[in-house]
Amino acid sequence: MLVMLKKRVIIKKKVVDSIISYCKMRHPNEAMLILRGKVSKDTLVINDLMIPPLSYYGPYYVGFPIHMLPFDRSIVGSAHSHPNGVVEPSLTDMQNFLGFISIIVGYPYEDENMHAFDSDGNKVKFDVEL
């Protein structure tokens, strides 16, 4: 299903900066954002974000009613923070996987604390572009 993720994932710099800023703003609570972009034959490009509707946050959880998401074919995944600094998907993260990719940003929320995962929990390399 996710063979294309093994080829190339591109995240726009403005998206990376926005994810990190949002995580810092929400700390010490978790933060969550929806990733928007496009999928071509061998590339996933993430170029926009959306705050999930009616989202709720706490120090060890984040969520939203998934049925409130608009029908939007540009939704390609999600990004959320781990205030405890652990940058591995939890069982709950895997059970609530959305789209093709999940980005997790661990405290202290810098570029090097951002990692991407596929729906099997495998790390996915990505490039950041302007």
Description:
The protein has a single domain, classed as 3-Layer(aba) Sandwich (Cytidine Deaminase, domain 2). It has two helices and ten strands; from the N terminus they run βαβββββαββββ. The chain has helices at 13-26, 91-95, and strands at residues 9-12, 32-39, 44-50, 56-57, 62-63, 75-82, 101-106, 114-117, 123-124, 127-129. Helix 2 links the parallel strand 6 and strand 7 (101-106). The longest helix has 14 residues, at 13-26. The chain is globular and about 40 Å long. 29% of the residues are buried.
Walk me through the topology:
Layout: E1 9-12, H1 13-26, E2 32-39, E3 44-50, E4 56-57, E5 62-63, E6 75-82, H2 91-95, E7 101-106, E8 114-117, E9 123-124, E10 127-129
Parallel strand pairs: 1-3, 1-10, 6-7
Antiparallel strand pairs: 2-3, 2-6, 4-5, 7-8, 8-9
- Find the CATH topology: Cytidine Deaminase, domain 2
User: What is the tally of helical segments?
Assistant: 2
The end-to-end span amounts to 28 Å
CATH superfamily: Cytidine Deaminase, domain 2
The overall pLDDT average reads 93
Number of domains: 1
Element order: H for helix, E for strand: EHEEEEEHEEEE
Shape: globular
Helix content: 10-25%
CATH-scheme architecture: 3-Layer(aba) Sandwich
- What about the largest sheet? 8 strands, mixed
Pick out the low-confidence regions. none
